[in-house]
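Table S2 (continued). Query chain:
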Amino acid sequence: MNLLMHTCCAPCSIYCIDTLRKENIEPTVYWYNPNIHPYTEYKARRDCLKEYAKTISIKTIFEEEYGLREFTKNVINDLQNRCEYCYKCRLEQTVKYAKENKYDAFTTTLLVSPYQNHEKLKQIAEELSSKYDIEFLYRDFRIGFKEGQEKAKQLELYRQKYCGCIFSEEIRYYNHNQAKPDIPMDLKTIKEEKPQVKKIENKEAYMDMLLEADPSKASIMKYLNDSDVYGLKLNDEIISLAVILPISNKTLELKNLVTKKEYRNKGYAKRLLRHLCGNYKQKYDKMIVGTTENNIPFYVKQGFDKYEKTIKNYFIDMANGEIKDGDLICTDMIYYSKDLKKR
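Corresponding output:
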């Protein structure tokens, strides 16, 4: 499917793009947002989207139109209903471009926000679909709003403080009591969920999960009984595990860190590791980890920035066949350490 996706900003695009790509749909990002004011805000959101798009290698189209005068002229006499004009203005331009350039369908990242009038957005998009005879790809992306915002925070993307137009900025400062659109109850529950760290007592019950990071059960059993095992719990499910082995009075070793496949690349392992480092620093000075070449960047970012040693051919000697980490054939075990007392 050749899909044109109207995009309001980088943070809102994250979950939409990730979800569509899982469906094997590669959208084209389409920027057309003359509603965003003042110009400094318009530029900040646009430039952030440009940079984020480069990092994920996605095709982009930027229609430059900073429309303060035109926008205010069209909404000033009916400010309470300005959002309807805003939706239609942006979506109609998107649909026209999609039709003229032979796209199969269109959609919008506005569908991810629980604070937009979702049903009105859907209605306008369906009307435009009928008017221009082009498919509207509808998805209720709101389920992933919190996830997308968390990822944007981790990536340190620019995150706006108000919807877009100059009037919503006014409300931000002068009318804090204005009611926001109701968020569906299931989305409220998702928004309130926070992962919790739990110490695991029945360690061997999680053997299948541990084997995803350490392929040798015999190897795991050598350290498991003497280690502390912690899980990150979300929705009554352990989604990430860490195994910590004390090796001296002042030093720990991170023996195993694994996250379930469907929850990877969302910052959960980092969250669990950060929590444990914070707890253990009360008693220990240093934590070491042995890892493959592929994972060195991850650990360095978490503060494991001192090289300790390399055990040559470690993975070759321990395995009967090849052990792979992604596309890399594992050979050496490389050790780095983190100073737990360092701020």
